Amino acid sequence: MCSTRIFRPLPALALAFCALALPAAAQQGGGQPPAPVTVVTLEPQEITLTSTLPGRVVASAVAEVRPQVAGIITERHFAEGSHVEQGDLLYTIDPATYDAAVKQAKASVSAAEAALAATQRDEKRVTELLDRRVGTQQAVDDARTAPPPASRSAPWRTRPRQRPLRTSSSPPPPRPSRS
Question: Which of 102, 123, 131, 159 is the most buried (most CB within 10 A)?
Answer without folding.
Answer: 123
